[in-house]
Amino acid sequence: MSETSDDTAVDKTADKVDVILMKAGRTKIRYPAEVVADDGTVVTVRAPWAAAGVRDFGFVRFEPGDVFTEHYWRDRWYAVKEVRTSAGVLKGWYCDVTRPAVRDGATLTVEDLDLDLWCSADGETILRLDEDEFAESGLSERDPEAASQALSALNTLEHLARTGASLAPSSPGTDPTAP
Questions:
Q1: How many CB atoms lie within 10 A of CB 6?
Q2: Which whole-number Å values give the CA distances from 6 to 2, 18, 19, 111, 169, in the listed order?
Q3: Which of 30, 57, 70, 100 is the most buried (most CB within 10 A)?
Q4: In this structure, are residues 107 and 17 in contact, taking their beta carbons and an 8 Å threshold?
Q5: Alpha-carbon separation of residue 27 from 112, 135, 142 (angstroms)
Q6: How many angstroms separate the CA atoms of 157 and 119, rounded?
Q7: Residue 35 and residue 115: Cα distance in Å, rounded?
């Protein structure tokens, strides 16, 4: 999935989209989200925790009532999801390494490339996740360029987290950490 020249012509004022997360050519999850902003490069949406029940990773629990503010770039190989409790308390940032996002009207599609990064709200816990799944995916053999971009994206996210830089744009379309 990559940006097409048509992306700049889509209605960016629609207030709702379906976020579609693809993995290995299949829909992993699809959920409705409210569009907060779309400046043509970054699409920011907000959605409640979309899975059924609680998901306890050991380092964080995602549960009903949690609110995700998600930033998707059309020109970067990752998405950053700020996670808050229903009371607004920041839990941290869950970062997915993905191909650049594609918005087509009321759908926003990203392809998950297995690698993830978690950064706790206090910045004390920064974890690279699913590197074993990435290695087993065969992406390095099937699409070496995508695999290289994915690893570079994970390294960038980890660097931003470890240096205390913002993982997400401070306001949609404004990102002082852009390469």
A1: 9
A2: 11, 18, 18, 19, 24
A3: 70
A4: yes
A5: 10, 21, 20
A6: 10
A7: 25
CA dihedral of residues 158, 164, 169, 171 (deg, nearest 10): 170
What's the pLDDT tens digit per position in 18-46?
Answer: 999 999 899 999 999 999 999 999 999 99
**Phi and psi dihedrals of 154, rounded to 5?**
-65, -45
At 53, which amino acid appears? G
Distance (Å, whole) CA 51 – CA 11: 28
Residue entry with tokens 């699913």:
130
- Statement: residue 176 has pLDDT above 70: no
Mean pLDDT of 52-59: 92
Other C-beta atoms lying within 10 Å of the C-beta of residue 11: 9
Dig out the tokens for 64 from the structure. 């009903």
Q: Which long-range contacts (CB under 8 A, 24 or more apart) does 44-53 make?
A: 44/69, 44/70, 44/71, 44/72, 44/169, 44/172, 45/17, 45/19, 45/69, 45/70, 45/72, 45/108, 46/70, 47/19
Q: Which whole number is the average pLDDT over 97-101?
A: 98
